[in-house]
Amino acid sequence: MSLQLDVRRKTLLKHMGLTLAFLPTVAPDPISDTPMATATPDLHTQLNVAKNEVKSGWVSDLHIDPGQANWIQLQKAVSTCQACGLCQSRRQTVFGMGAEPPSPEQPGVDLMIVGEAPGADEDRLGKPFVGVSGRLMDRMFEAIGMSRERDLYITNILFWRPPGNRTPTLAEQAMCLAFTRRHIELARPKVLVLAGGVAVKAVLDTAEGITRLRGKWTSVRLDDGSEVPAMPTFHPAFLLRTPASKRQSWSDLLAIDKR
Ligand code: URA
Q1: Is residue 236 in contact with ligand 1, taking CB distance under 6 Å?
Q2: Is the CB of 252 inside a 6 Å radius of any atom of ligand 1?
Q3: In Å, how far are 8, 47, 84, 176, 179 from 52, measured between CA atoms?
Q4: If you placed Cys at 113, which of 31, 71, 193, 200 could pair as Cys (CB 3.0 to 4.6 Å)?
Q5: Mean pLDDT of the chain, nearest integer
Q6: What is the mean pLDDT of residues 77-87?
């Protein structure tokens, strides 16, 4: 694959902390290059650079534009993506799991849940939310009569486990976001549940914390012009650490059920 990145873009990506296995090192071009600031670009800059890079398809050998991809193409683009170092440490890509993805003739899934990133169990099994926090999440949705197999489609902002389950960096989130947004477009959920601060901030593109946003309906405008009602709620791993917050999550679930 030939990469047509100029020195400036390569330098910017380097400043974002993105390591590309196949990115050739280039000597700085003293004539045409504007000097780069040494500070890390803010989230907005990172998101925009990453969105454009992912859109232009350079992260995958397949040259698939996530904005145009169908379900299978998106899965392939995600699993061959090398935009950040996580592709080197992960065992498996964790794309999503649950109710069948809708075909063009069928309505979308009832409810799509977007979490943060796979952990050790998910990385081992290639499925999202299959560890202890996933079991809590299943029980919570079962309490409002929804099952993973029938009603839910579950995924994460990141498709790979960050080593040691560390919080995904902004650059990693930014690189995945074009995929995630297309994932939501293709799943066409009636309701989107954003589980935890990482998913909320990335999908809603906000700096506002989960504690302020949870329990309040909002909506996500997608690139195809559609709007999806979205409910920010606590991450189940947070509920395991802070059981007293389950009461608030229960009220979020009741609001989802009522919708
Ligand atoms: N936590 C997440 O955010 N996602 C998973 O898939 C598992 C744990």
Answers
A1: no
A2: no
A3: 15, 9, 15, 12, 12
A4: 193
A5: 82
A6: 86
